[in-house]
Amino acid sequence: MIKIARKNLNWWAATAALLFLLIQVSADLYLPTITSNLIDKGIAQNDQSYIWQQGINMLIVSFIGLLAAAGNVYFASTQSMKVGQKLRSQMFNKVVNFSSREFTDFGDSSLITRTTNDIVQIQNVMVTILRMMLQSPIMLIAAGVLAYNREPRLTTVFLVAIPILAVAVVAIMYFAVPLFKSIQKKTDRINLVFREGLTGVRVIRAFNQDKFEQDRFDVANHDYTKTATKAFVITSFMFPVMTLILSGSNIGIIFFGGHLIADMQMQVGNLVAFMTYATQILMSFMMLSMVFVFVPRASASAARINEVVERENSVADLPEDQIKQFDQTKPASLEFDDVEFKYRGAEQLALQGINFKARAGQTVAIIGGTGSGKSTLVNLIPRLFNFDDGNILVNDQPIEQVTQHALHEKISITQQKAVLFKGTIRTNLKYGNKDATDDQMWQALEIAQSKSFVTENGGLDAIVEQNGDNFSGGQRQRLAIARTIIKNASIYIFDDSFSALDFKTDAQLRMALHQDKQMSQAVMVIVAQRVSTVADADLILVMDDGKVVGQGTHQELKANNETYREIVDSQIRKGDAANA
Ligand SMILES: Nc1ncnc2c1ncn2[C@@H]1O[C@H](COP(=O)(O)OP(=O)(O)OP(=O)(O)O)[C@@H](O)[C@H]1O
């Protein structure tokens, strides 16, 4: 919490909030003195002009208190909201630069809860601190001193009331604080189940698992509700307990104060003022005790936020003085030199001894069974993960020596699962190249065999729903391919991007890609399952169990490589490799 406040709070505004608070507290503390004077000097002696004068004083002091409270609320709320705003943008900036490892570690749902719910907790506690929690200790001490000055003998009532209150507060906190901490985790769980239910809604319906999912959500929801109810029931005891103690104290004060008045040792006004101070003391004590409920809860949130904001990215750039630049005069090339990679926690290497080199204008195709390491290999090129051994060079430059930003400028990729953003065809294509003209967009769409369905849907301004849900799987793939090729890059990667296309479209698309001038100066990497997709590549890598078990052209591999022959044979049997 302190770290977050130190980094994000505007100290001028916080000091202004504190100053207004001091004025408000002084006004609150001065009012009982006026009341006392009014009763003892004005009413007791029937001095009308004194009553009027004190009445006006009372109004002025109350008005000053009101203005100060408004000033405090203004600075406290604006500051807290700004802290929330800064935290949200820090979280977003951090998360968009995370590598896949960090996403796996935190989980999408938890990142969302941290950016929303946890930040709201911090905002709330900041307002409370700037508004009430600073007020309580000042009020407690000042009202205590003033009450003691009025009548030291009556303060013995506090010696009984405050320890009882302290025991009640500690007991309540003891049970409530752990519950508040676990509420945060349970919110994560609800979000996780809800997200999975939403993203997998079609699968759930297709498998008639609505009831199963509903039950799963109900369990998470019930668990959250049970904990939250328990926490709030326990804390709500605070108020009745407080009222009981306050009433008990007032009875004690009136009882003993009444005796003092009867013995002419105290004036009525003094007793009224004392009772007001007593209420202020006990209220402040209670507010202070709330600190121990709110702050641990917000601290749990702060820790969860700091965990994300301070997380070192596992894929980091070198220090600035060691960073190299791409030599812009060099032609495109891609080279893997004895590359080895293992996923964290995995027992086996996901990639082992990967060696190949491709030059400008060449196409490298990667084929192999599921789980053989094809996607892992291409994901190492934009550094979605760091490889463990060997070397990867783009345009003859080792990729870890340049910034990720510079590297990503040289690479354009279509992931296995096509991702489109809510907007229009135009806004989606501009992700690839923000300066692209309409002509360039249409050209990219034409190469990606998307021109006809985009035209039918209303052209470049056709709406793309969230995740591209208003397009078919094949259409989404083709739009993602268009976005990839509109970017001016050295390496174009298509990770299983042609699998959702029919044979004819697949062939037409590849032919258009080969004829494109920009592509002829770049390296194309195509991951595929179909032999027909890879057959015309300059270099085919056959992968099996994380290793390249054969490389060469289609004819060479067909002649010499057992695994490739098996793939070809299996597809001929299925009639898939008609062109093979
Ligand atoms: N994020 C990950 N963490 C741990 N292991 C992973 C991860 N991603 C993939 N793997 C493992 O690495 C191996 C290679 O996976 P990869 O996705 O590269 O295969 P692939 O050849 O692309 O398969 P497919 O054709 O089915 O997409 C698999 O055994 C897989 O279980």
TrEMBL record:
GO (cellular component) term, any one: plasma membrane
Localization annotation: Cell membrane
Residues spanning the membrane: 51-76, 129-148, 154-177, 231-262, 274-295
Gene3D superfamilies xrefs: ABC transporter type 1, transmembrane domain, P-loop containing nucleotide triphosphate hydrolases
Matches recorded under PROSITE patterns: ABC_TM1F, ABC_TRANSPORTER_1, ABC_TRANSPORTER_2
Keyword Cell membrane: yes
Domain ABC transporter: 334-570
Keyword terms of this UniProt record: ATP-binding, Cell membrane, Membrane, Nucleotide-binding, Transmembrane, Transmembrane helix, Transport
Domain ABC transmembrane type-1: start-end pairs: 16-297
Pfam family membership, one: ABC_membrane
Bilayer topology term: Multi-pass membrane protein
InterPro entries in UniProt: AAA+_ATPase (IPR003593), ABC1_TM_dom (IPR011527), ABC1_TM_sf (IPR036640), ABC_transporter-like_ATP-bd (IPR003439), ABC_transporter-like_CS (IPR017871), P-loop_NTPase (IPR027417), Type_1_exporter (IPR039421)
Keyword hit for S-adenosyl-L-methionine: no
Molecular function terms, GO-annotated: ABC-type oligopeptide transporter activity; ATP binding; ATP hydrolysis activity
Protein name: ABC-type multidrug transport system, ATPase and permease component
Source organism (scientific name): Paucilactobacillus hokkaidonensis JCM 18461
